[in-house]
Structures are given as C-alpha cells and as structure tokens.
Amino acid sequence: MPALRAYDERVDLGRIGVWTSFRTIGEENAAASARLAEELGFGVFWLGGSPQLPVLRPLLEATTTLVVATSIVNVWSYDPARLAAEYTALAPAFPGRLLVGLGIGHPEAARAYARPLSSMRQFLDGLDAADTPLPADRRCLAALAPGMLELSAERALGAIPYFVPLAHTRAARIRLGASALLAPELAFVLDEDVDRARAKARVHAQTYLGLRNYTDNLLRCGFTEQDIADGGSDRLIDAVIAHGAADDIATVVRAHLDAGADHVALQAIGEPGIPRDGWAALAAALTP
Fold first, then answer.
1. Contacts of residue 230, Cβ cutoff 8 Å, sequence gap at least 6
2. Does domain 16-188+245-285 have CATH number 3.20.20.30?
3. pTM of the full predicted structure?
4. Which of 47, 97, 187, 278 measures 20 to 30 Å from 6, CA to CA?
C-alpha cells in the first residue's frame, strides 16, 4: 500500500453515512445537503451517479469534518492518470476527508464492458503508475461478487457494496477478512404503512432488478428468479430495502454492523429533494 503523503490523515468514516445523488437532491443543493449531514452527525456523504471528482469541492468547502466520497467513479468513463491527478489537486486542502469509490458499472449500461475483474485490475494499475498515484487507502471498490471483493481487500481500502441484503454483508466480511473496509449501502423508506412503503421500495428497486450484476448477486444470496420477477417479492424487497419507523430501520442498520459492516451508507427513498426528515429521524434513532 502506498505511503500516505504529508498532507494526508487517516480517513475516519464513522459508523453511519448518507448516500444520495445530484439527481435526487439537485446539484444546486449539494453544499446545503452536506452541511446538514455533518450537523446531524453522519460521518460520510456518499455521492452517487458517477460523479467527476472536481464536483466534490463545494461539498468539502461547505463542511469541516465530513468525509466526501464518490459512489462511484465509473472506470469506463475515466482515465486513471486523470483521476489520480484530480485527486492530487483536491485532497491537500481537505486532509483525511476525500475517498474515491470506484466501480465497473453494468454490462447493460457500458458498451465497453468486458472482463470486469481484469479491467478493474488494469485501472488500479493505472492509478498506481500515475505521476502522483492515488493511494490504495484512499480508494474503495463497488464489489459484489467474490473476486471483486477479494480485489478490494488486496488493492484498496475495502468494499462498498450496493443494493445488498444482510446475507451479503455476512458473506462479504468472510471474503474480505478482518481488516478491509466493508461499507454497504442501505436504502430505506421511512413509512410505517407496509404496503405503501413496499410500493415506494419497488419503484426504487425496479432499475436494479433489471441489471445483471445485482440480480446475479441476489441469486448468490439465496433468492430465486421468482423473487426477482414482477418488481421483486415481498421477501426480497424487505431484505434489501429497510422500511417502517426510524427504530425499525435502525434495527436493520445495527444488524449489518453486527454482521461485519464497518460502516453503513443510508439512502432515503420516497422523500423528494434533500431528505431532511429521513436523515434526521435516522440520526436520532442511531444516536447511542
């Protein structure tokens, strides 16, 4: 693992973060969203939607302790030398507060998609060979399958799985070993009406149940083709997307932590704009 530079500090993610995207909150609201997340006590602001690294600067400038992370940079849309240079241009001003999540994307969405594991290795080789390498402990991988999980432990800080049930967290911890980061995303619907909450969850799940990376992972976790069909069975929806009162959702978060997660990234579903109510409710429910 490359040595830390003089301006770097150890990244402290805390136990709980928030996951969102500009599509959800609006890029114009990014700084305000980051400030709110920090005020509520979350450790990381995970920005989805394949962001370019320079767009993180306003979020970092608006906060003082919050870690800001990509979830994820799509390797098919970036040159590794460029990414390493952008990291070097941004990181010195915010020691210990910038984390780069990398992902291989989906075969349905990337024309160049091929040989995901070897392609990710090649991208990491490029980061290491750059004039100013992006350190291994400042990057993490969107890993679902066993091979990518192992690579995330070997060549990065660890793994940031997305759209996963508790069974995946248990299996991933075993595959990663004790020391690598495991930080799953957990979508949640703050709604105590079960039918209404599941309906909102299915709208969210629709995209992912049409992507092979996610459906293959769900099959490995013990779900069936029947569970995946027709918007997802109740069993599948309930396993992947927490819903109910804040305390109910907090129980699922704690279950992931007990199963081996170091950190859980919470994604509020069904609340347009900045999810103030959902973030505040979960922050309160998860306060020791």
1. none
2. yes
3. 0.95
4. 47
Token pair 């069909």 is at which residue?
Answer: 229
Short-list 150, 164, 183, CA closest to 262: 183
Give 185's contacts (C-beta < 8 A, 6+ positions apart).
Answer: 19, 46, 71, 160, 161, 162, 163, 164, 264, 265, 266, 267
For residues 125 and 108, what is the distance between their CA atoms, to the nearest angstrom?
25
